[in-house]
Amino acid sequence: MFADILMALQAVATIENFLIMAIGIWAGVVIGAIPGMTGTMAVTLALPFTFYMDFVPGLLLLVALYKGSTYGGSVSAILIRTPGTASAACTALDGYPLARQGKAGKALNMALYSSCIGDFISNLSLIFLAAPLAMLALKVGPPEYAMLMIFALMTVSGVSGNSLLLGVVSACLGLLLATVGQDMYGSFRFAITDDMQAGLSVAPVLIGLFALPELLKLIVFRIAPKNDAMKLGDDKVSAAEFRASLKSIIRGSGIGVVMGAIPGIGPSAAAFFSYGEAERTSKDPSRFGKGELEGIAASESANNGCCGSTMVPLLALGVPGDVITGVMLGAFMIQGLTPGPMLFQNNIHEVYMLFIGMLVSSVLLFFAGKLTMRGFNRISKIPATLLTPAVLTLCIFGIYAISSNPFDVVILLVLGVVGFAMFLLEIPTAPFLIAFILGPMIEENMRRSLAISRGELGIFFSSPICWIFTVLIVFVAVTTIRREVQKTRARKAAIS
Amino acid sequence: MKRLLTGIAVVTGLGAGAVHAQDYPSKAITLVAPYGAGGASDLAARALAESAKQYIGEPITVENRTGAGGMVGARSVADAEADGYTVLLARVGMILNPAVNPQTMVKADEYTYLGALESTPMILSVDGESEIESVEQLVEAIKESNGRMTYAASGATSIDGFTTQALLKDAGLDPLTAATLVPYKGGNALATAVMGGHVDFGAWAAGSQMGPIEAGDLKPLAVFAPERMDQLPDVPTMSELGYETAGQITGWSALFGPEDLSEEVVAKWDEVLDKVAEDSTWLDLAEKRGSISTVGTVDVTEYAKSQFELFNGLAKDFGYLPE
Amino acid sequence: MKLPLFRGALIVGFFALVLFALIPIYVPRPAFIPGFTPPPAWWPRVVSIVGLSLGILSILIALKTRGDAPSDTAPIELTAPIPVLVGRFLLAVAAFAGFVFLMPLIGFLASSILLTGVAIALTGDRDRKLWAVLVSIGLPVALVYFFGEALGTGFPKGALIKQFGL
């Protein structure tokens, strides 16, 4: 085995491979940072190139693009509150306030460090834990899946708001909006216009809800968010700050690894879940959403923590778990290779090359991030009265470019107004968004479970994984409600 | 039905486009792939783009426009200007959907049928550890289970739902209640559900099955294709086993354009597809995807019509549509 | 009316509308779903009932505390008389609507130039007129070029423009 690894190392360590990965990562970061251009899009566009490349460099290019774009999403989330990819939505919650305090550099650095660490841990898990993770992925059936998603939703519905009640209302709105379109059996719901038959896509909802209210706030109240002057050290993460966030980075990476390995969950849910956990277990949760570095660390480590483990189902089972690895399956097929356990027997050389390349790419991600950061950081110096309207234009074009569907632009604008209304009513928007993403997973898996059990509710408590989640759900519900009550009492005491 | 027939008449003979297309094409052509990246339609689209661009003399850009079971992409092509610069990589769903769904977003006659591309087999599989070894045993088990057996599909009226339902019908069972449908989204999710033992069986596109079959995680029982697959020479086809309706169902891709394409455009594509039929890139990529090229060997208009009638008949038969 | 009460009423109103009007009309029950599995309307109904009850709960809380429920968000600072604020909001919404209406007529590029210009003007900044003009024309042009080159996106040209053969 050692000789194998050495040989693979030799084969993979060529200038061309490094160049391909470096370009892939860098392009990924830039693409991820542009609202409307997603990692999926980048990987899809690169697929035809891999037809003409050797297998390993081709696949490494796709991996590099994916990793780069997952980090890149955080850049625009921090600087202009426009998550370049859905998985960076949580990063915006604390990153944007930090940027407004003149600490954009600090936020970007924290995002980069946690992304790279999450990414590296995820690669290691892919290499050493692929078999057990794949077992876990197969064990998670509809009932387990539903319980896991309910647990994740419960953890995050208290996120970034000061009222649990309004957080849950916001989540209900998101759950409801997610039901528009065709349901899992193929029958239409809320198809009020023809366009609505296809349902609402995540990108316009996400960007409308997060980025556009900033513009409306500026137009209506005309308080230009003043950027505080930058103080010395504001563009670096201090050792103490890093240590304080380390727990969240490690936990986030772990969450990313597990959620990434389970087919169909993906980095957005992982990032939200990790953020919710960081807030829930924090000594001072009230700082979250106002510029807490730990929030960025939790979110970014989790979304990049998915990047390696998302390949577990593809490599260990031969079945991709998400769109990105779906494209990779295409690359495999075009090369005449079938991913799956047999790959480890027949093509172990290529597998090792791939693994080594992935480890290297985490390091390259660090340099690509550092390199682009300086350029991007200048954005925060543009006056808000120009920048915020320009963001609107960028979003409109980006959203149209995703699917060439004018209806998506309409959704973007409408959700912008909805987001502004929610701001006026003091209803938090983060639970809305996460419910919109998780809602279909919860509903579909509950209905699947009930179809399998022929309506018996017992199926939700039928396996050890289900029991664990039941206990966790009860625990989180009790502690969250108890804390809410304590908070209200404390406030009342403060008033009287 | 009348609309469809008139539509086909228009399509085949009297394409009366106002666009002057003597110099067609003079700019890049957009090929819409209506399903997600990396899937069968996407790979077929990219392979076609790669191999046809040299014959048509302009680049072909593939665009994934997904949603509503592929109908969003189909709608965008049907609505596009009939100038030949927007075409659709159509899948069986583009004919199946209008045939079974009165609320369909695009009717079957809202296209110009340009040519058949490939046939993509579907495979009936069970979990690799299952005791079931053959279709016969599966049907027996379904009968005994009294409706408790579950099968995975992308929806009730999706193509991979019709595969199983047609088999149930051929076996003399009620297609809707003899086994319970558990809907999943897309072939990969179906594979995971059957491999994980969450669902008992399913019959869906071969693309997402080859890895697990090779590893023994899925057990193929039969293929939905006109002939046996090269990679699975021991697995019989549905027609060989005597299942008549199921034998007619298979996956396929074709090239559609918006309604009323001009004769020049149609002629140009005829010429291009003739060359693609023998193009080594196209044939090579088709073999690697596990599909069989049907360019130039199948009359797409006839085939689309027969498929429409097949699915429309089945939908009435199964009770999705009133008789 | 105090904010919490108004908000509660709005929440109740919205979920009631969904539950009693939209679901019965727009969520049909297909014949082919077996009786023992939940129908398509099940989940939206559960969610709206939860939302409705939470809305009612928030109204009760608002009534009980007479609208001065403790909150730790700073109240929104009213920087101008309310009619002015409402006016600005309506202008912004009109700009959005105008974009959606004009896009099929004059094309994506022209209408986004207009929208960008109007949005910059609405922010009330009069010190950077040259920049405002540069951004509102330059950015959309650059984006059309960029997305056209990178993704091959064809932005709608607009029916009116086409008529003049441009």
Automatic annotation (TrEMBL), chain A:
Lineage of source species: Bacteria, Pseudomonadati, Pseudomonadota, Alphaproteobacteria, Rhodobacterales
UniProt keyword list: Membrane, Transmembrane, Transmembrane helix
Transmembrane domains' residue ranges: 6-33, 45-66, 120-138, 145-178, 198-221, 314-334, 354-372, 384-403, 409-438, 459-481
Keyword hit for DNA repair: no
Organism domain of life: Bacteria
Record-linked InterPro entries: DUF112_TM
UniProt domain DUF112: residue ranges: 19-433
Listed name of the protein: Tripartite tricarboxylate transporter permease
One Pfam family this sequence matches: TctA
Xref: PANTHER family: TRICARBOXYLIC TRANSPORT PROTEIN
UniProtKB/TrEMBL annotation, chain B:
Signal sequence segment: 1-21
UniProt KW 4Fe-4S keyword: no
Domain of life: Bacteria
This protein's UniProt keywords: Signal
Family: Belongs to the UPF0065 (bug) family.
Name under which the protein is recorded: Tripartite tricarboxylate transporter substrate binding protein
Species annotation: Limimaricola litoreus
Lineage: Bacteria, Pseudomonadati, Pseudomonadota, Alphaproteobacteria, Rhodobacterales
UniProtKB/TrEMBL annotation, chain C:
Pfam families: TctB (PF07331)
Coiled coil stretches, renumbered: none
Domain DUF1468: 11-156
Keyword tags: Membrane, Transmembrane, Transmembrane helix
UniProt entry tagged with the keyword Acyltransferase: no
InterPro entries linked: DUF1468
Residue stretches spanning the membrane: 5-27, 42-63, 75-99, 105-123, 130-148
Protein name according to UniProt: Tripartite tricarboxylate transporter TctB family protein
Biological source species: Limimaricola litoreus
